[in-house]
Amino acid sequence: MIGDFLGALLDVATSEAAYINAFTFAVFLAFGASGEWVAERSGTLNISVEAMFLASAFAAVIGFDRSGGNQVVALFCGIAASLVVALVQAQMSHRLVANQFVVGLTLNILVLGLASFLASELEFSSKKSKSTSIPLLSDIPLVGRALFDRAWLFYLIYAVVPICWWLVYRTRWGLELRAAGENPQSADVSGIDVNRRRRQGIYVLGVTAGIGGAYLVLGAVGQFEDSIVGGRGFIALIAVIFGGWTLRGTIAGCILFGVVLSFRLSLPALGYELNGDLLASLPFVVTIVAMSVFATRVRAPSALAQPFIRGLK
Amino acid sequence: MTPGFEETEVDAISLTPGTHEHRDPSPSEGRNTSRSRWFDLGVYGETVGLYSACIVAALVLSAILVEATGGSASEVFGALLDGSVRGPGRIGVSIGVAIPLLLVALGTIVSTQAGLVNIGQEGQVFLGAAFAAYVGVELSGPGPLVLIVLMVAGAVGGGLWAAIAAVLRYRRNVPEVLTTLLLVTIGTQLVGYGLKNQWLLLAPSEGRSNRQQISQQLDPDTRIPRVTWFGNEFPTSVFLALGIVGLLGFVLTSTVWGFRLRMLGFNPRTARRAGVAAPRYGGGALIVSGAFAGLAGGLMLAGGDFGNYTLVPGFPSSIGWTGLLVALVARQRVSAAVLVAVVFACLRTGSGFLASTGVERRVTDVVQGLLVLALLIPPALLFVRQRRRELAASGDRT
Predict the structure, then answer these.
(1) Is B162 at the interface with chain A, CB within 8 A?
(2) What ipTM, to 2 d.p.?
């Protein structure tokens, strides 16, 4: 039993296709998770990532179709749609101070309804974009093709993650953003517009999730269906929590969950039977266990998910 | 520690999500502080005006969406009315849908009162239905007795699922928002697993196609009796639900338990000073809210409006999510929850009649989402305005 399992694991670990699958998921998650990390550092526990992914994927497909197959246009359509969702979320939760979970949840339902409604009304076609191989790097055994022989949208992750890190840790804006997430009252008295920083954090998420949605539909799946995101926005969200609100941990979480998600594809392809239900819930179980074990060691931004209302007594 | 710092810290605590909810400004306060001519209409006028404007905006947006995609908004509206109220027997169907929505919403109100954010009702409903299905099929005995045990089992199932979140919240300090959300997916997969194995929930192989995942149908005498009034057939569990509405309204407003719950929600620090044990009351509220959702699942299974007395994958069909929205729109008022539950149930049953208009039924999800967003705006806006007025008033004094 254990031997079989280890054997299967070894087979997966030495199969190039498994790495390709795993990194397809991991990078998609990382697009959302790196932006979500920025938003969470500013104090928003943003659960509308799901809606942003879906809005972006749908808009990207429409843009791709209407522009005659121009992927850059598709990408910008995706980002724009995702930013609209981010705008509603940000304005409602950090200008009007409506409960951010309620807004996020409603947006998830609304966008799912809107996307599936429009998808049934409009006609469009799309195709998976061709991969661009980077010479030399793509020849690395096992992971070479998984990391360096991809659709061009994939390579944006190599820019998105460092930019998010730089923004948060190396700019004044990032310092203010983190202050808004840690102690909004103090940030406020030192002249930082707390809610504005939080809104901007959500806009950053809007951009990265927009790239993620466009990558999902054009770089990974190739066609749009309304179940294309299927709850993976939540996995991007929990990757941040799993990573203990550090960018490094978040990316590690994305890779781990990417591997777990890819088992569903990789294991049957290698001839192994598996229980899909239990495997599908593995990322969630792992996160709950990780949160319970590390809860005392990991520190969330102190003001996470707490609205800021100036001078409220 | 300076006094000022102490003050801000209390603020931060009293602002836990869900509890910071902006209470409606009371009319007298509003009048005292309002200085602008605009507000002389009184706060009631302002409130009603804002709400109507937002609802109208949501409906107009939906209509534009339908028209833009080649449908006819008036036809859609007519079909929604036919499907929910006007058509023969449709009121009964709407009542059948409103029952679980209402119960989920009531549970959500309990946990929100205690300042906890439970957003895992969808999973709790499913677990409740699964427990109920298991008991209903496996237990043999007189029908009514089995039915009662089945409903209790549903409540226990939902309660247990929420109890995981409660234990993690108070033992390990893991935010209940996250655990309840994550438990939705785990619960869905768990019941899915049960529906693939005959020793758990899957029906014996005769009477179902080979790969179909379905539980055995409940016996006719273990189903909730249905009554027909004026041509509308609905399950009698509606009386149970209304009874619970009355009971809960009383418990929350007029008992010590309800008082302590609200104290915990308003300000956990005060509550602790006053001797309210947060794990006991908060954890209890979370479990009760899960139990309500689980009971809703049990009633859905035995009531007959969902899944024909069987459990299938995707059984909760967003009742949990919608019920949560009902509670949020009703803003923690039990009586308002009844009204909102009926409206949302009508939207849902009405969507079944949309096929004749050629408009995809998912449009009702859009209408519902826009309505909820629209209903979130007025209280938030009123709150912000009142804050500004208060700040301006205090500024004048100093």
Answers:
(1) no
(2) 0.83
